[in-house]
Amino acid sequence: MRQIRETLRLHLQAGLSYNEVGRALKISKSVVGKYVSLARVAGVDWGTAQTLSDEDLEARVYRPALPRGSHQLAPDFGVVHQELKRPGVTLMLLWEEYATGNPLAYKYTSFCVKYAEFAKCQQRSMRQVHIAGEKLFVDYAGDTVPITCASTGEITRAQIFVATLGASNYTYACATPRQTTADWIGAQVQALEFIGGVPKLIVPDQTRALIKTPDRYDPEPNRTYEEFARHYGCAVLAARPAHPRDKPKVEGSVLLVQRWILARLRNRRFFSLAELNKAIAELLVDLNNRPFKKLPGCRRSAFESIDTPALRPLPATRYAIGRWKTAKVNIDYHVEFEGHYYSVPHRLVGAKIDVRVTGALLECFASNQRVAGHALSAVRGGFTTTPEHMPASHRAHLQWTPAKLIAWGQRIGVSTAAVVTWQLEHRPHPEQGYRACLGLLALVRRYSTERLEAACTRAMAIRAPNLRSVTNILKCGLDRQPSLFPATSSPAIEHENVRGPDYYH
Fold it and tell me: What CATH number is attached to the domain comprising 150?
């Protein structure tokens, strides 16, 4: 009796938990719960226990008085408990249905009191009232399942995802490679397709894979999770950190999955994730069809009658999981992703934009507006450029080709065409020749085509057909001289020591 009295004192007066009381008295947690439950049923609180001797306390706890017989017809409170989960159903409505045509029915007050006693026995903590189709609780089980690579023998650990509807306890489970953002969201997409509808709220943990800014009161989901919720038209209500009672439904379902699915698979060997998920799906049918212990029906029947009518329909398309990152637009109006560069409109140079990657597609967003889309490329150091993203001058530069530049020179004159050809043929890279030719084109706007042709003729004559020489000839007006080398009356002297004018060119 001393342990019972000390248990009641430590738990009811001192406010210690079952674990703390068990450690203090060196008894198990289950024994503490048994003592407290017996005392609660017997109507013994700590104040009453203080007034009783050890013998009286034992008599009250272990031999409680039997309830008086009643001629009244008691309702099925299990059915009442399930019906209250339906939208708009109240205790008053259920009592009226129970009392109609039943002369032995309880009065409304007694009906409510007895239901409260029934509901209290279902769970020791505060009971959450779950409305049909309102909440889907999601979590990962602590246990993992080994998967063996058939070729190498390497063993990886698959993670077990569990989702449970609040009203019906209908449960879904699957295996994922890890617990990344893609794994979390992909598993939730499968869970919604499994139940065939969308609840109003999804309740996850405040994991870093889903929650960008964890907070006790106002957690902020990351961009991908927000997009997922917006696609399915539901909201996200993350549980508080280190508060498993915020999502007790899925915590209980995790235990059931461990007992009725994972425990049955403990001796099986799996060689792929698909093989493991197939085995889980087979056992999941049995789990949802197992009868409730205290309530009528099973998870499947409760789901079909309670949750299914309240769920909203799935969208027409499945959510495509995307990765988001923030990137700064380089001066060449490209953004980098995994070593490859993708163009955006040149007006965004220097701005920070959002990049979304889904499958084989990369999309760029500025101020929540889609500004570019490219096919993903695995070429590191490469560029993917859309001409429409380039400034007009850059687009014009792209349009220049050797044939086009030579044709332009021919329209001016033979000498100009010769200078253009020399630039294209004697440069280490064609791009260098393009720039020189564009420089010649700019001289046309400053001088005339006739002067440019004359300058090119003089440049060819002195064997200096480059842009700098042509430019200097025009600046100095040498193109206007009638002849480069004036004629002389005397013949040129020919001697091995006389170099002549051609030597210097």
Answer: 3.30.420.10
